[in-house]
Amino acid sequence: MTENNINQSGYVQVQSNGMAVASLVLGILSILFVWIPFVGLVSWILAPIGLVLGLVALKQPFGRGMAIAGSICSGIGLLGCIGWVVLIGVAAAAGSAA
């Protein structure tokens, strides 16, 4: 039995996609950080990088589920960042009108 994914001891080696893992980690961190004032600025860096890594990882033959989850989490983090900008803009406009 000489398959490519079985080593000599008989254990199956699981294929992984490093970009998908990185995308998922960055997406989760961006969701967590976006809710913390001032620290949430880090999410502006993490979310786009995670989104790009997730979309690139979708082209790999394995790890597609993790790449999809990473892209979704990064997208949610990016939407949270945009939401903060809109919220601050509305508050600034309301403050200047008073």
What features would you highlight for this structure?
98 residues; mainly alpha; 66% helix; 0% strand; transmembrane helix; transmembrane; DUF4190 domain-containing protein
What does this entry look like structurally?
- With 98 residues, this protein is mainly alpha-helical.
- The protein has one domain.
- The protein is 66% helix and 0% strand.
- It is built from three helices and no strands.
- It has helices at 18-33, 43-57, 64-97.
- Helix 1 (18-33) runs antiparallel to helix 2, helix 1 (18-33) packs parallel to helix 3 and helix 2 (43-57) runs antiparallel to helix 3 (64-97).
- The longest helix has 34 residues, at 64-97.
- The termini are far apart.
- The relative contact order is 0.19.
- The model has no long low-confidence stretch (mean pLDDT 88).
Task: Count the DSSP helices.
Answer: 3
**Mean of residue pLDDT values:** 88
Distance between the termini: 78 Å
Which shape, going by the Cα principal axes? Answer: rod-shaped
Extract low-pLDDT stretches: none
Keywords: Membrane, Transmembrane, Transmembrane helix
Protein name: DUF4190 domain-containing protein
Organism: Brevundimonas basaltis
Transmembrane segments: 20-53, 65-94
